[in-house]
């Protein structure tokens, strides 16, 4: 029904559409400032900072899901894979595409010598929480996310 493969530059317009679909689902569409050009540079330039898998529907070759990941370093655990996002278009959710993408990212973490992987899930996203619980994932409490935007960093350093 589905095929998972490494993403290509030509996939990026559809990838960005799925990212925007996720932002709408998470009630924050105005937060997406990424562009195809940025993703091309950041994922396929001389120093790529993220990896990408796409999930295609076999009968149409339409990209219906994506997984974006990168590496981080834990002073306690060593090299870790960070799963930034798995997105499956709404009409295809619950049909196994998310599992295929998640399994592929897990396999990639082992291929790349990672000591494990991590990700975030919104506390109100029950379908995603239940999905990860099926894997026996440990869902941490007690950590807060911290952010500074480029504009804020510039202002602070000026």
Query: How would you write the strand order of the largest sheet?
Result: 1-2-3-4-5
| Major sheet description | 5 strands, mixed
Number of helices: 5
Order of helices and strands: EHHEEEHEHH
Q: Helix amount, in percent?
A: 25-40%
Cα gyration radius (Å): 16 Å
Number of strands: 5
Average residue-wise pLDDT: 95
Stretches with pLDDT under 50, minimum 5 residues: none
- What is the global morphology? globular
Helix/strand/pairing category: alpha+beta
Q: Beta-sheet strand percentage? A: 15-25%
Termini Cα gap: 54 Å
How would you name the oligomeric state of the polypeptide chains in this document? single chain
Protein name: GNAT family N-acetyltransferase
InterPro entries: Acyl_CoA_acyltransferase, Diverse_Substrate_AcTransf, GNAT_dom
Pfam family, one: Acetyltransf_1
Domain N-acetyltransferase: 2-158
């Amino acid at each position: 029904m589905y095929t998972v493969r490494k993403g290509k530059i030509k996939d990026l317009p559809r990838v960005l559409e799925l990212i925007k679909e996720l932002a709408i689902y998470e009630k924050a569409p105005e937060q997406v400032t990424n562009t195809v050009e940025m993703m091309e540079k950041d994922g396929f330039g001389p120093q790529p900072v993220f990896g990408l898998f796409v999930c295609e529907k076999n009968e149409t070759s339409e990209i219906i899901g994506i997984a974006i990941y990168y590496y981080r370093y834990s002073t306690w655990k060593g090299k870790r894979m960070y799963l930034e996002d798995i997105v499956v278009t709404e009409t295809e959710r619950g049909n196994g595409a998310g599992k295929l993408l998640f399994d592929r990212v897990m396999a990639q973490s082992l291929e790349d010598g990672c000591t494990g992987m991590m990700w975030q899930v919104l506390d109100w996203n029950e379908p995603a929480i239940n999905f990860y619980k099926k894997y026996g994932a440990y869902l941490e409490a007690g950590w807060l996310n911290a952010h500074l935007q480029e504009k804020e960093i510039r202002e602070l350093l000026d």
